Amino acid sequence: MFIFPAFIDPTTAVISVFIPIIGIPIIIVAFVVWHIRKLNRIEKMLKEIQEKLK
After folding, report:
1. Using CA atoms, how far apart are residues 51 and 43, in angstroms rounded to an integer?
2. How far apart are CA 15 and CA 8, in angstroms?
3. How far is CA 2 from CA 5, 12, 24, in A?
4. Which one, 20, 36, 52, 54, has least CB within 10 Å?
């Protein structure tokens, strides 16, 4: 039989369930934004190199 631990109240349990639901999409969005910014920098550098080669 499972006994609910005294140091975890229902509010903490609910928060611990919803943090991953909210946190994971935020992490994914931040990761995508980081990659887009990185790709934009690479594209800008390639355009500069192309201009120098012309």
Report:
1. 12
2. 11
3. 9, 17, 29
4. 54
